[in-house]
Structures are given as C-alpha cells and as structure tokens.
Amino acid sequence: MAQTFMQNQRGITTFQPLDVELRNVFKFFNEEPAVHGVDLDVRQGEFFSILGPSGCGKTTTLRLIAGFERVDAGKVLIQGQPMTNVPPYRRPVNTVFQSYALFDHLNVWDNIAFGLRLQKLRKSELESRVKDALKLVKMESLRSRFPNQLSGGQQQRVALARALVNRPAVVLLDEPLGALDLKLRREMQVELSNLHRDLGFTFVMVTHDQEEALCLSDRIAVMNQGKIEQVGTPSQIYERPQTSFVADFIGDTNLFSGEVAVVESACVQIVTKTGLTIVVTRAEDTPTELSQAVVVSVRPEKIQLSLYQPTVLNNCFEGRLVTVMYLGTHVNYVVELTNGVSINVLQPNTFGNLPDRDTPIYAWWPESDCLAISQ
C-alpha cells in the first residue's frame, strides 16, 4: 500500500498509508476538461474535503473515485490498487448522495440491509451488522418506517448507515447535508464528525459550503475550473491561502491589487492601484520581487475600527461608515476610505451603541494580519 511521510509535533517522521490516490487525472466532456491534471493523496482515516464552486469539477472527481465515471487519462488508486477496470460495485467504497437515494418501497431496516443481501451473508451476521449500523445513527426505534415517513435528517442518517454497514475502506459523501435546513445541517455536522472519529473510516466529502469544510475536515482541496488550487489543513487554507481565488472563496476577505514597492528584512510594502500603501509582514512565501504584481488579502475580522486616529505607523486609513449591519453575534461594517475604496469589517457585538452611518472613522490592522499573494 502506498504511504505518505508525516512529521508529528515532536518532529518525528511517521508513515501514513494512503487510501485514495489520484495521479494526473483528466476527464473530458465534449472535449472540454472537467477535471484537469488532478493529483491528490487521501490518508487512511482522514476526513478529506473537496471544496469549490458549482462546475469546478469536484463532483466529477468524486464520481471518478467511485467508478461512476471513467478516467480519460491518469490513474485512480484505492488502497494502492489501480481502479482503471474495476466497476463501481467492486470498489471498496460506498457513496452517500445529497438526494439520499433511498428505496421508497423498502423500510429503514431493508434499505440498510440491501447491500449486505447482495453479498449473500449469513442471516445472523446480516442482522448483527444492520443492528450495529442502526445504533450508530440512532435509528433503532424507526427501523420499520419507510423513507416518506422520515424527516430529512432521519433519511440522511439511513443513507449514512447504508454506506457504513458495508464496512468500506472509503466513504464518499456527495454534498451529504446540502438538502437540510441550517439548524439541522449544523446538528448533522456534529454527528458526522463524531461518526468519523468513532469509526475511523476514511471520508472523502464534496461540498461547496466553506464553513462545512472548515469545521469537518482534516484537510481540504480547493478546486477551481477543474484544477486543484491548494491542499491544506483548514487553518492553512484560511490563514495562508496560496492564490487570490482561495483567499476570496474561503470565507470573506478584502482584496487589494498592487505591486511590490519596498522590500525589507521584516516586511514588504505594497502600493495598491488605488494609491494605498500596505505593509505586510515578510514570510517565507511572501513575494519579494520589486514591481511584482500581487494581491493583498485582509480578512474582515482582522480589521479594527476607531473613532480617533490610533497610534500605529502602518496600515491605518481614514474613511467613513457607509453601512452598519447588525448580525446578532457580530456587526458587519462597510467603510469607504478617503480614496473611494470600500472595505468590509466584521467585529464582535459587544452590546454597545452602534455608530451611525456617515460617521468619520479609522480602519487599521497589524502587518501580520494581512497576506501578499502573487498574481
């Protein structure tokens, strides 16, 4: 089985088996590449998410792993074995679809048992495994109900149980919570995370929901136009995006286009197209070539507001409030700077009096709380 090298917190190198590998994978529809040279490694026991907007190729990538689509070029391997000529039903994977894909004419028990019956298991083993699956998803008391007698969350649990009962090497999740309302979706996120932790299966999930990917995943691959833009942990993807697309797609951010003007040992000065000078703490991946085109990303929650000019040297700009949006736990401000550029600011709601629109205000942020990205 293929392995990847990892370092733990003590710097000790360990070997982690790979459950899913994609090697330079292409898939074409009408001669247009839906998946374009994708390389991915999914580690054993990992919760791995493929995240991106509609039409980016993420669902096609999942279908290539499942075997519902054939690879036009490249290789898909599961537990080190090539899957080129292996049909879906012989692959050690099970898929949970957004639509649940339950059999309406079968009750909960029979829906979960369906795949096991195809394997011609002994009755005692089949019953034992179905009971275990029902217990995992807390559906024991509803075993005799039919899908149309279940809520959306209950149907989702049955779909999960049906996938898990076969004990696959990899569970594939295609927008598994997309059909649920917000409150139930968050409850199911917790349950899905607990299931993954308790069972130790490898989960590969496709989603367009950034918050869902960030809260559930060990690692995330961000896709755009059939290609992988970045792979990393949730904190790496959010705090250190490698492209302007990732910065803009993952959460909210303020983007400033400009070029490198001054390079010093500890920081880099960027002059934006609108005339702002932004100072960025220099890191290993910070662009340092003079006149190089860059985009500066500043998250709304990193920006501070003050009615009086703060005593900071850099990244402090005067403006006025044009929008104040009360969001309950937070307040979203839109500030128009004196050069006409508008920025979004997100601050915790401290239950104080909110400032009025058109209030003169200063917006500022530390050099370490912004990021320069090569264009």
TrEMBL record:
Keywords: ATP-binding, Cell membrane, Membrane, Nucleotide-binding, Translocase, Transport
Compartments it resides in: Cell inner membrane
GO molecular function: ABC-type putrescine transporter activity; ATP binding; ATP hydrolysis activity
Predominant cellular place of this UniProt entry's protein: membrane
CDD domains linked to this entry: ABC_PotA_N
The keyword Nucleotide-binding is annotated on this UniProt entry: yes
Taxonomic superkingdom: Bacteria
One cellular component (GO) term of this entry: ATP-binding cassette (ABC) transporter complex
Residue ranges constituting the ABC transporter domain according to the UniProt record: 20-250
Record membrane topology: Peripheral membrane protein
Enzymatic reactions: ATP + H2O + polyamine-[polyamine-binding protein]Side 1 = ADP + phosphate + polyamineSide 2 + [polyamine-binding protein]Side 1
Top EC class, one word: translocase
SMART domains per record: AAA
Pfam families named in the record: ABC_tran, TOBE_2
UniProt xrefs under InterPro entries: AAA+_ATPase, ABC_SmlMolc_Importer, ABC_transporter-like_ATP-bd, ABC_transporter-like_CS, Mo/tungstate-bd_C_term_dom, P-loop_NTPase, PotA-like, PotA_ATP-bd
EC nos: 7.6.2.11
UniProt entry tagged with the keyword Membrane: yes
Similarity comment: family membership: Belongs to the ABC transporter superfamily. Spermidine/putrescine importer (TC 3.A.1.11.1) family.
Subunit: The complex is composed of two ATP-binding proteins (PotA), two transmembrane proteins (PotB and PotC) and a solute-binding protein (PotD).
Annotated function: Part of the ABC transporter complex PotABCD involved in spermidine/putrescine import. Responsible for energy coupling to the transport system.
NCBIfam families listed in its UniProt record: potA (TIGR01187)
Protein name (record): Spermidine/putrescine import ATP-binding protein PotA
Gene: potA
